[in-house]
Amino acid sequence: MGKNVLIIGASGDIGSAIASQLGEEGYTLLLHYHQNKTAIEEIQRRLPSDAILDTVQADLTSDKGIKNLLSQIYYPIDSIVFASGVAYYGIFQDTPDNIMDEIISIHVKAPFSIVKEILPEMIQKKSGNIILISSIWGEVGASHEVVYSAVKGAQISFVKALAKEVGPSGVSINAISPGFIDTKMNPLSDEEKGILVDDIPLNRAGSTQDVANAVSFLLSDKAGYIHGEILRVAGGWQ
């Protein structure tokens, strides 16, 4: 408890829920956002003032933006949670190149670069925790979301591979694989949501709190022997 957690994408629906949960549990937070400063201000209003170390604005769709983020980290980081993400829905061959570049940068290049920068300090301390919010699509793939599925799959492979490197150094890395979470990234009609929920054994959409609870668990001592795993939070949906 009380350790410093860097949350990438803290202004999104899932990121905000994670920040609120961890802040209430006594962690101290460094919150990254791109454009939605209002969401960050809302988190600041909700949590005690000493729960937030700092906020960092950076656009992770480019190398310049990633370097800008890293240049603003002045505190030791004990844990990192990657909750940043964008989706694109459309036929793969019609996907614009700039959209592919942005999705790859946010979901793959940014986590790789940020972990690469912070990992040496974690290894030196023989302590650290890294969590990526991936997606069930990274495991099974989704038509019309090919690029998104591919980068989420890359995150999962990254977790499994890096876990084998850093485990002996006391650094833990895992991913959470949400199923259908009712957020703004899923702008479905009520009818479409109903059809989808019918396929979920728990008969409901997942909530951002469900994901936040999983992050809280993986950061806790109760998850001390969970390493290199992909924790599915999907209500039994396959």
Account of the 3D structure:
- With 238 residues, the protein is α/β, with parallel strands linked by helices.
- Helix content is 45%, strand content 16%.
- The protein has eight helices and seven strands, in the order βαβαβαβαβααβααβ.
- The chain has a seven-stranded parallel β-sheet with strand order 3-2-1-4-5-6-7, with helices on both faces.
- The longest helix has 29 residues.
Uncertain residue ranges:
none
Classify the secondary structure makeup into a structural class: alpha/beta
Count every helix, treating DSSP H or I runs of 4 or more residues as helices: 8
What is the straight-line distance between the termini?
34 Å
Element order: H for helix, E for strand: EHEHEHEHEHHEHHE
Strand order of the largest sheet: 3-2-1-4-5-6-7
Q: Summarize the main sheet.
A: 7 strands, parallel
- Outline, from the CA principal axes? globular
What's the gyration radius in Å? 17 Å
Mean pLDDT: 94
Number of strands: 7
Helix content: 40-55%
DSSP strand content: 15-25%
Write a brief caption for the model.
With 238 residues, this protein is α/β, with parallel strands linked by helices. The protein has helices spanning 13-24, 37-46, 63-71, 97-125, 137-140, 146-166, 190-198, 208-219, and strands spanning 4-8, 28-33, 52-57, 79-82, 128-133, 171-178, 230-233.
